[in-house]
């Protein structure tokens, strides 16, 4: 698919970079995006006046001219028309698409949508692509809307004859694959690149992560390994055609439109660790969703080839700075609390053997709580139950 005036086919998918006050020059970052063949670069610089925005848009359009990177201007069809950009992206309250089409002619027009009804309206209005969001909570742009979550992305991706879908909102490097797995064609990133200390390096890492194990040329063995380890796939491990979210009986599953292969992902193994010291239990406050800002036990996914006990020790050290020794297996359970995937949780009891208490990785705080004054705002019910059982057992001793 392409806009009527654009002879280049619409890219199948990839990174959609949104430029908002990057910590390097926009020109440098756009040059790197062109070098990396990033499909879209959107200019969203609301602090610039009209002349400054037009000048910047012209410079970036010239940098991308003749490449496979399209320059999109946020909200301003007039700037898109005058700057030589490839298109404009319109929010729900911006210029109506019919009026924008009169201004930009045959350039690309993207529209924002958050419901199947809005996506249907965007399709009927002639949108070249749809931006769905915010998928996760974000501070980059105040939308006044609750996060859609991956389930809505799956619903939107399953709509027949839909335009390409760009997921946006709170998508960091650790979430890109899961939005692709939910059926999005493009993942829009803003602060994950622009707010990074080194935006160019962050963009390189992001593109490399998206390309690794997800390109049609990737070997079946690599893709099957990714499936087993629940890393999220974008292409069929049987024939390498793109996967799309589709309704299979009572569930939405990734399905190959070419050969019909249905991807059944296994539950992901997760460890959590109860670390007691001086009748206090170690807990961390989550830096990211799910459960952002809430407390839980040090926990995380088991890495490929890693024993769960090794994972438990590693997660505690990454999140709290403390080195631990596993004392015993405490419990196991299955749950669907994590919106990204069903999990099988393995809980251990451990003791501290070294290190310095300091929050890191996914944790914004790391604190030892007295067992009779554990926090109320615990992120996961399974952690709450495990702690209750552990404390009850200790009290019986």
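^ Assign residues to that structure.
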């Amino acid at each position: 698919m392409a806009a009527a005036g654009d002879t280049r086919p619409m890219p199948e998918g990839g990174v959609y970079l949104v430029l908002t006050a990057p910590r390097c020059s926009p020109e440098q970052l756009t040059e790197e995006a062109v070098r990396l063949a990033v499909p879209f670069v959107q200019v969203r610089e609301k602090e610039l006046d009209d002349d400054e925005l037009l000048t910047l848009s012209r410079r970036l359009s010239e940098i991308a001219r003749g490449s496979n990177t399209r320059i999109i201007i946020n909200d301003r069809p007039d700037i898109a028309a005058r700057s030589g950009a490839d298109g404009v992206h319109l929010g729900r309250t911006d210029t109506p698409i019919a009026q924008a089409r009169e201004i930009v002619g045959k350039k690309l027009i993207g529209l924002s949508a958050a419901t199947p009804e809005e996506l249907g309206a965007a399709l009927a209005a002639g949108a070249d692509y749809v931006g769905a969001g915010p998928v996760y909570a974000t501070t980059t742009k105040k939308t006044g809307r609750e996060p859609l979550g991956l389930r809505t992305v799956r619903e939107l991706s399953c709509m027949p004859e839909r335009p390409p879908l760009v997921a946006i909102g709170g998508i960091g490097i650790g979430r890109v694959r899961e939005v692709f797995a939910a059926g999005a064609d493009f993942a829009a990133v803003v602060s994950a690149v622009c707010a990074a200390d080194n935006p160019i390096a962050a963009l390189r890492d992001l593109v490399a992560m998206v390309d690794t194990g997800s390109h049609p040329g990737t070997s079946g063995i690599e893709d099957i390994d990714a499936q087993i380890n629940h890393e999220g796939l974008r292409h069929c491990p049987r024939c390498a055609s793109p996967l799309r979210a589709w309704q299979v009986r009572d569930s939405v599953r990734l399905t190959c439109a070419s050969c019909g292969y249905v991807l059944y992902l296994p539950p992901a193994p997760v460890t959590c660790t109860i670390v007691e010291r001086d009748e206090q239990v170690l807990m961390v406050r989550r830096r990211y969703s799910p459960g952002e800002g809430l407390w839980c036990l040090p926990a995380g996914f088991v890495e490929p080839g890693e024993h769960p006990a090794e994972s438990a020790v590693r997660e505690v050290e990454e999140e709290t700075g403390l080195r631990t020794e596993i004392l015993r297996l405490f419990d196991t359970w299955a749950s669907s609390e994590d919106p990204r995937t069903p999990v099988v949780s393995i809980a251990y009891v451990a003791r501290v053997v070294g290190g310095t208490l300091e929050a890191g990785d996914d944790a914004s705080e790391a604190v030892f709580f007295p067992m009779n004054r554990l926090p109320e705002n615990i992120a996961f019910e399974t952690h709450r139950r495990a702690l209750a059982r552990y404390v009850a057992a200790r009290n019986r001793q």
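The chain has two domains: 14-211, 268-396.
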